[in-house]
Specification:
single chain, 13 helices, globular
Length: about 350
């Protein structure tokens, strides 16, 4: 059986799992065919407005949109606009070079904290372009520290999942729907594994199918190496064996799998921000971790901090990383970076007062 036949076999296996779901969704598909979306012409200038009117058997959704009329500006015009808004630019030539390498839209995220008026974008007194650049460089260095830590956490999590689930349920446990909580999420996860296997160029994947010609999937210790942290978190979440999940959580110093799952999900979202070079320092994160009051290893005493700020995630990462490598320099690196950039306000990241005195950060 060649690689094409292997792919066909995986498609056949996935089709078996899809049948029930398709039967359940037939009614929904029929209803969706009766939904009609009407869009206005470009001449519409009204603000965003959604209206609904009903006709027997049909639903009409009428949407009006505000027309976007801002025009692109070249670099000299951008600098002139910033100065007109009250921003000081020490070296216009250097600022122009930077804007040629870092788009204004990206840099604007670091200018925004200096705005006195969010509507007119006028800047506070003594605001400078150089301060925005310093924030940008701080954020880039912070991403490097965070991403390096997440990489080690991800590798350790993958190893624990492969080890414990494979020992109990065999090499292909991720294809076993009977050990999953939700059928739809099981199919989604299995499709994700199949998609990664299909597009992989790894030698060990090619060698596996060359040697085991009737295999639909590689075993977990091969397949899991292809998966993202987000997919690993979904596999863990959907597993129904809470004893195995609790065992893995405890090996990382957490008392149960529930808090552990929240940590995985929040750190996976943070990882995506780092991978896409997005701003992380003062972002409001929609996926938040639980912060237990007490943990068995060095932890924080003050958990009264916004869960949607970076500090909460840094605490979870530091604790998790300490369980993997007690000699890591993660907290020291964060403290050193903050000392290097005194312009940065830790409170904007959710840091509590006297955070440096917390057991976790000493």
């Amino acid at each position: 059986m060649n690689l094409l036949q292997n792919s066909a076999k995986r498609e056949k296996d996935l089709t078996v799992f899809e049948r029930k779901r398709q039967k359940k969704s037939r009614k929904t598909c029929t209803i969706q065919k009766k939904v009609l979306y009407l869009h206005p012409t470009e001449s519409t200038t009204a603000s965003l407005l959604f209206g609904e009117c009903s006709v027997p058997g049909w639903n009409f959704f009428i949407c009006s949109y505000m027309k976007y009329n801002k025009q692109p500006l070249d670099i000299p015009a951008l600098l002139a606009m910033l100065k007109a808004r009250g921003l000081t630019i020490g070296d216009e030539q250097q600022a122009g070079r930077l804007l040629g390498l870092v788009s204004y839209f990206r840099l604007a995220n670091y200018l925004r904290p200096m705005e006195a008026d969010k509507e007119t974008h006028q800047y506070k007194p003594n605001s400078s372009f150089e301060n925005a650049v310093a924030l940008y460089r701080f954020d880039a260095a912070l991403r490097e520290i965070v991403f390096r830590a997440i990489s080690n956490i991800e590798i350790a999590l993958r190893s624990k999942m492969i080890h414990h689930f494979s020992l109990k349920y065999g090499a292909f446990w991720f294809t076993n729907m009977s050990i999953c909580n939700d059928e739809h999420l099981f199919l989604e996860n299995l499709n994700a594994v199949d998609r990664e296997v299909r597009r992989s160029k790894e030698d060990y994947i090619k060698e596996h199918f060359s040697k085991y010609k009737d295999s639909a999937f590689p075993p977990a210790w091969k397949a899991m190496e292809l998966l993202s942290l987000g997919t690993l978190a979904k596999l863990f979440f959907n597993a129904s064996d809470n004893k195995v999940k609790k065992k893995i959580a405890r090996e990382f110093g957490l008392p149960n799998h529930l808090a552990f799952e929240s940590w995985m999900n929040s750190i996976a979202a943070l990882r995506n921000c780092c991978a896409h070079h997005a701003r992380i320092w003062n972002r409001n994160y929609p996926v938040t971790p639980d912060l237990p009051k007490r943990l068995r290893n060095a932890w924080i005493k003050d958990t009264n901090t916004p869960f949607n700020k970076l500090y909460a995630q840094l605490c979870c990462m530091a604790y998790w990383y300490n369980a993997i490598d007690p000699q890591n320099t993660f907290t020291a690196d964060i403290k050193e970076l903050l000392l290097k950039y005194p312009i940065v306000d830790p409170a904007a990241m959710g840091f509590v007062k006297n955070w440096q005195d917390e057991p976790l950060w000493k």
